[in-house]
């Protein structure tokens, strides 16, 4: 039995990192905008944040301008969606134009690059003050699954060094892919699940949700690993492509898809998946619930 697992939101709850990232993004956007616009920019950003959450199908994590995950799918996506909103309104809206220029000025090559830098800085700050954030319940469930003979490969957009430090802190045995040791997690960081194929689109609809599933890096890893189960907290990033494979490739027919639902999981996504993707199994108690499903 091989479980392919996401990291953030599966082994952690990202509230602290996300709050810090949001504060950092907003503060830097205001600080870098022209002094005469700063008060207006602050109010504009608060309004833009409300707008992206009101229209999560339009805004989200959108590397290169295409939506890879919706604004409301996890606490990080909201910050990416704010930058996506600025990107779409720059050149049209006076404040959006000023904020876009303000981000490029200190040397960020794009809003996306700025978002990535803010994320890394936020995670570093939280790690410094609180320490790494692998949840005790997740670590326990992980240990139980490993000792129960389940192979676990952690496939995450987060970098390998972070995964290494955080699992070490939680005293979970782990090795870095391609090394493989029975009883140890195998880490595949920098997985780029969010990257969409520049030459190809494959939008799949699940009720009112339309999700881009042309994710070449994730596709390569999924086909290479051939897991028996996949677990993630963000449907678009973690589970939409495995679901397509399960529906179209006989080799994937019996693969189980566990979706960890949290306090941030959008009700609208829950409703649409319950109605239109019953293969996705919602789990409300984190990896503990996944361990229960897999080993009892
Ligand atoms: Mg995640």
Describe the structure.
The protein folds into two domains: 2-12 and 133-295, HAD superfamily/HAD-like (Rossmann fold), CATH 3.40.50; 15-129, no CATH class. 49% of the residues lie in helices and 14% in strands. It has helices at 15-32, 38-54, 77-89, 94-104, 111-130, 136-147, 160-169, 216-225, 235-248, 267-276, 286-295, and strands at residues 2-5, 60-61, 69-70, 151-155, 174-176, 185-188, 203-206, 209-212, 229-232, 256-260, 280-283. The strands form three sheets. A seven-stranded parallel beta sheet has the order 5-6-4-1-9-10-11, with helices on both faces. Strands 2-3 form a two-stranded antiparallel ribbon. The protein has a two-stranded antiparallel ribbon with strand order 7-8. Strand 2 and strand 3 form a beta hairpin. Helix 1 (15-32) packs across helix 2, helix 1 (15-32) crosses helix 5 and helix 3 packs across helix 4 (94-104). It starts with a strand and ends with a helix. Magnesium ion (MG) is lined by residues 6, 8-10, 232-234.
